[in-house]
Design goal:
Layout (H helix, E strand, L loop, with lengths): L9 H21 L23
Protein backbone atom coordinates (compact mmCIF):
# COMPACT_ATOMS: atom_id res chain seq x y z
CA UNK A 1 0.00 0.00 0.00
CA UNK A 2 2.65 2.49 1.03
CA UNK A 3 6.39 2.32 1.37
CA UNK A 4 7.52 4.38 4.35
CA UNK A 5 10.94 2.70 4.58
CA UNK A 6 10.11 1.56 8.10
CA UNK A 7 12.01 -1.54 9.17
CA UNK A 8 9.72 -2.35 12.08
CA UNK A 9 7.83 -5.34 10.70
CA UNK A 10 4.21 -6.10 10.00
CA UNK A 11 3.08 -5.18 13.51
CA UNK A 12 3.59 -1.47 12.91
CA UNK A 13 2.33 -1.41 9.31
CA UNK A 14 -0.89 -3.34 9.93
CA UNK A 15 -2.71 -0.61 11.93
CA UNK A 16 -1.72 1.95 9.31
CA UNK A 17 -3.02 -0.32 6.53
CA UNK A 18 -6.33 -0.81 8.31
CA UNK A 19 -6.70 2.97 8.66
CA UNK A 20 -6.23 3.34 4.89
CA UNK A 21 -8.73 0.55 4.15
CA UNK A 22 -11.35 1.95 6.54
CA UNK A 23 -10.91 5.48 5.17
CA UNK A 24 -11.32 4.28 1.58
CA UNK A 25 -14.46 2.32 2.51
CA UNK A 26 -15.97 5.39 4.19
CA UNK A 27 -15.14 7.53 1.18
CA UNK A 28 -16.80 5.07 -1.22
CA UNK A 29 -19.85 4.69 1.04
CA UNK A 30 -20.42 8.40 1.83
CA UNK A 31 -19.24 10.05 -1.37
CA UNK A 32 -21.82 12.21 -3.11
CA UNK A 33 -22.75 11.87 -6.73
CA UNK A 34 -23.49 14.35 -9.48
CA UNK A 35 -27.20 13.65 -8.97
CA UNK A 36 -26.95 14.39 -5.22
CA UNK A 37 -25.32 17.76 -5.91
CA UNK A 38 -27.60 18.61 -8.87
CA UNK A 39 -24.60 18.96 -11.19
CA UNK A 40 -25.30 18.86 -14.92
CA UNK A 41 -22.77 16.53 -16.50
CA UNK A 42 -23.97 16.61 -20.09
CA UNK A 43 -20.60 17.90 -21.29
CA UNK A 44 -18.62 15.01 -19.74
CA UNK A 45 -17.55 11.99 -21.76
CA UNK A 46 -18.40 8.63 -20.26
CA UNK A 47 -15.15 6.64 -20.45
CA UNK A 48 -17.06 3.45 -19.71
CA UNK A 49 -18.81 3.45 -23.07
CA UNK A 50 -17.88 0.70 -25.49
CA UNK A 51 -16.01 2.04 -28.51
CA UNK A 52 -16.58 0.41 -31.89
CA UNK A 53 -13.28 -0.44 -33.52
Amino acid sequence: MVNLNMRLGEGSGCPFAFFIIEASQKMMRDMGSFEDANIVNDFLIDIREEKAI
